[in-house]
């Protein structure tokens, strides 16, 4: 097993180094290695990965005793759902790129249409593979499966690295905007006869603008998709040949129930509503024209108010964990180990961007209002990320709290109440039948009145039953809330509040709000290409961190 892991790891390392050398050569020497050469290399890797995935689906997984064990912790529904979601946006991104390149076919290479087409096939096949087999602990063809998984991981890493550094279409849009500004100022735009960006101008047609804007809008989803796929594939690689003992599988798995929380959902919902309003106001300004100063001040002020609240909640939750008497979960769990690694690794994106912003602000003008807000935002973001990581990691390593008798009595009481109601209903129905037998059959009007009375009685009984069900549900909710200890109650409130906060902090940068790139401060300090690479490295990691934090916080909430 160790030899197979070592060999497959060396294979992935060599593939990543080869691809990184190609991409670095493309960045620093545009003549010797072009973007088309990098696309050809990645297309070859994608074809090899497709061949292995198809072989696994049709051959390896169908062999006898191939999948005897399945890891219940691997591939949760929110991870597989995010693979499908980000995969769908990545397919849309490639469709936009194909349409954009087809319109500008006179100055674009044929590879720019072939490469996205292969990418669409690769995304569809990989998403189906991860949806169906992310929990597999394969017991046959160990070395070949490990090498295939590592090759796919290396390919996704190279696709992510290319997405971080490839700013071709972004530079074309930037150069066109610069030309428009120069024309308004009365200056003649500079154009070199060999300048490719001036030759590949998007014509003034609606369809070209849609492809251009759509490509830029869904661009971060592609990097997000590559990162999520790498995490799922790594868990599958760790589970190759793994045998799970049945006595280690918990018989009672905690389930998500919205009980024992009141203030967390209220504060979290208010945070989400205010965040959506701020996000919509920012997007209206950003899409209409260049965002003005007031919009940036409003956006960063929202973060400056929210981040300290999240940090205080995480610190209080960590202190409560220290006061608890729950034992630590010391069993080997590859999924939990990967969760910790991903939380720490993805946090580097936000922390790195924050430090770059701090250096740029301190070196320019930290006394300006907007700059001071950005500086406060960067410092608070670093502190919030660290405190939240400590809270989540500490909660993931705690044994789940199992309440054996908490939910028994309300159910028995409800059954006794329903059972006591049924004989009364039978008595009313039998008495009504006896009354019907005493009525003279020739009187049709009295029969109609009797039928109307029975229908009214039935409606009244159903309304009474509905009221009793609502009353029992509310009483059971209050009973569960009052019987929770203050530590468990506080942990659930904090976890639920942080879940909603991370959701809104995931939504805002994912769907277009990128003030860190549009405020112009860091971009003018570091240069367009350098800051583009920094943002494309840190922003997808930050979005991935928020999404992964939601899963970790839900796990902490369920086990509290």
From TrEMBL:
Q: Where is the composition biased (Basic and acidic residues)?
A: 442-455
Name the residue ranges with Low complexity bias.
429-438
Membrane topology term reads: Multi-pass membrane protein
- What are the alphabetically sorted keywords of the record? Cell membrane, Hydrogen ion transport, Ion channel, Ion transport, Membrane, Transmembrane, Transmembrane helix, Transport
This protein's name: Otopetrin-3
* Signal sequence region: none
Any one GO molecular function term: proton channel activity
Matching Pfam families:
Otopetrin
The entry sums up its family as follows: Belongs to the otopetrin family.
Source taxonomy: Eukaryota, Metazoa, Chordata, Craniata, Vertebrata
Q: Where in the cell is it found?
A: Cell membrane
- Top-rank taxon of the source lineage equals Eukaryota
| Disordered as annotated region, ranges | 407-455
